[in-house]
Structures are given as C-alpha cells and as structure tokens.
Amino acid sequence: MDTITPFSVDVPESEIDELRQRIAATRWPDQLPGVGWGYGVALDDVRELAEYWRDGYDWRVHERKLNAYPQFTTTIDGQNIHFVHARSPEPDAVPMIITHGWPSTVHDFVDIIGPLTDPRAHGGDPADAFDVVAPSLPGFAYSGPTTATGWGTTRIAAAWAELMSRLGHERYVAQGGDFGSIIAPELGRIVPDRVLGVHVNALATASTAHDPADAEKLTDEERARSEASSAEWMERSGYAMIQSTRPQTLAYGLLDSPAGQLAWNYEWFADYDPAASKTTPIDRDAILTDVSSFWFTRTAGSAARIYRESNAWGAAPQPSGVPTAVANFAGDGAIRGLAELADNVVRWTEYDHGGHFASLQAPDLLVADIREFVRTLR
Asked: Which of 133, 195, 207, 365 is 20 to 30 A from 374 in CA distance terms?
C-alpha cells in the first residue's frame, strides 16, 4: 500500500470531442433583463466562455504544462492520492507541501513551481529553493473520486503527514489557500515537531466571528470588518450551503452538463462587481483548465463533498504554536484578531491587489511572500 507510482495526465481525444459536442448541445436558460450578476452568473458571460471552451481553448497545452513536472499516485488511508513532487536542483532546498482549495486543482500551481524549486533560473536567490510537493485534494480531479465518507480537512491533513513521511521529508513547510488555508495549519497541529512553519493565503476561517465572545476580543475596526464580511457571505454562500448539505443532488447536474459545471465553478472565480474591485482577473484558460480537469475525471460532485465532510466554518480549532504567516490579498477578508485566536501569527502582509486565487492572480507576490517568511525559519 506504500507503493508510489509514476503518473501523467492523458485525456483521450474522444473525451475532448464529446465535451465539445455537449457544449454545442447546451440548453441555455433565459435571464431577466438588467439583473447582470445579481441573480447568479450572467448568461452572456458564461455563454461566451463556453463558446471559447468549445472552439478556442486547447486542453493539450495545459495538460503538457502539468506533465512537465514529475507526478505520482499512492494510496493513503484507502484513498488514491495524486501529487506533484518537484525536487529542486539546490542541495539545501526546504521541503514544502502546498495545498489548493475549491474549485481549484494542482494546475493552479504550474506557474509557481518553477520559481519555488529553482529560484536561480528565475532571477532569485538559490538559498530560497524548495522541494515542492503539491497533492490533489482527495476527491478532486486526479485524486478522485473519494470512495468513503469522512474526508474532511483533519483527515486530509493526516494524509499529508503520511505522504511527506513516505517521501522522506521529515521537516517541512506547509502552505495553502482556501481549503488549503485550513489544511496547512491543521497539519501543523497534527505533527508540530515536523512542520517548520505554516504559510497561508485566502485564509478561509478568519473573516467572520461566529462566536460573540470572539467578536468581543476584536478591535472596533476588526469587529466592523467581521460584520461586513458576514453580510457579504450571506449573499455569496449559496453554493457552500448546497455543497455542505446536498452534494449528491448537485452532482447529477454537474456531471451531466459541462455548461452547468462551468457556471457553478465560474461564479467563484469571478468577482460580482469587477469595476469596484482591485482583484486581478483570472485568465480564462486557467479557469477552463480547472473546470476541464473536473469534467474529464468526473469529479465535480466528489470535490463538492469536501464541504459536507469538513466543519470549515465551525468553532475555532485548538491554538497552534507553529509559526504562521498570512498573506491577505485583495478580495480576501481575513482579520488578524480572528486568525490569532487559533494560529501563532508571526507575519501578516496585506496586499491591495491580487485575489483569492493568488497563485493565478499574483504569483510573483505569493512566491516572494513565501520566500521572505521561510528565510526567518532557516
């Protein structure tokens, strides 16, 4: 069961042809006049993106980009786990495991793995090199589907600890965004003697005070931000409520309609009001690569289950003593006072641009922030 098997992505051409045929046969809904994105993803926007997906997007380009890195699969706790293991040419590179969120895949990391593993080749200091391990979350794309219940964030963190042991990495840094920002700190709680430090972006658990007692610990400014974030979450949280309660019902539509899956994923990749935001638009090829990965592996429903399996927005976890850095990009609302209730925050950086998907929207800033933090741990 400890076997590690080489892996590469190779989607049959027949699957690509079928996808195009299904997109062409989409039954499009109507839309009320003048509502824009107010009722959900705007019809004109998703239709335009779907047409590009059918006629302009080249899956093979992005398949090759991921296949340029060494990939493997192994079985941990009964579940198939896919991962990239990109070793640095530098002998003193620091091992680091990086974890994506939803609706992302490891494809989101293809442009940062090179600078992280080989800074010398990208104009950086070779002392900042990392050996990068980038797993696909259980149930997501090449690690899917899950075949049992219980694959929440704590179980995933335990699987990551086993994966790093299996790869011979005894001391390492944990990094993550979105669901990865929950899993990386949890890894530090499970094996604190092995995690040198935790770096997170898109910190999903520190934007709203769920407990009135926690709210009382905040400054007036932080409390106001928490209340504003709570109101915004009520507007945007429909997808999470469905995935947290009825992911199986949702799965029938996602697995059968590429346009349906595209709209469901696209909503979280896009801003509701781009004109009022400083977030960087995400390249449409990056969005479609994630969407295609779920489509070809038939795992959109399986990936949605992580919300059902995880208590992502419940009570704060037990405090961690592992040094933690938070990179807070535009579009994210993490509040330091809330983060410090559970994490040993030693570095906090606010960025006025970028976005929730920092590896896609601000890769240079993300890489630099990781490097600067880890220098303090050496």
From this structure: 207
Residues in a beta bridge with 364? none
The band of 163, judged by pLDDT with boundaries at 50, 70 and 90, is very high
How far is the C-alpha of 366 from the C-alpha of 202, rounded, in Å? 11
Location of structure tokens 């960025």: 351
Measure Cα distances from 120 to 91, 123, 304, 365 in Å: 13, 6, 39, 17
Residue 149, beta-bridge partner list: none
50 pLDDT above the threshold of 70: yes
In the chain, the domains with their CATH numbers are: 4-375 (3.40.50.1820)
Interacting residues of 46 by C-beta distance below 8 A, sequence separation 6+: 259, 262, 263, 266
Beta strands in 304-352 (DSSP E): 323-328, 344-350
The amino acid sitting at 326 is V
Helix, strand, coil % over all residues of the chain, rounded to 5: 50, 15, 35
- Give per-residue pLDDT as tens, 66-75: 999 999 999 9
Give the H or E element holding residue 336: helix 336-339
- The pTM for the full model equals 0.96
How far is 289 from 48, CA to CA, in rounded Å?
16
Cα-trace Rg, the chain: 20
Q: Quick one: residue 23, left, alpha or beta (phi over 0 = left, psi -120 to 50 = alpha)?
A: alpha
Side chain identity at 99, as an amino acid letter?
T
Q: What is the pLDDT of residues 229-262, one digit of tens each?
A: 888 888 888 999 999 999 999 999 999 999 999 9
* Helix 59-67 vs helix 284-297: crossing angle, to nearest 10: 80
Location of structure tokens 């909503």: 267
Q: According to the model, what pLDDT value does residue 274 have? A: 59
State the chain's maximal CA–CA distance in angstroms.
61
CB 287 within 8 A of CB 50: no
Residue 314: pLDDT band (50, 70, 90) is: low
CA distance 190 to 157: 8
Counting Cβ atoms within 10 Å, is residue 236 exposed (0-12), middle (13-18) or buried (19+)? Answer: exposed
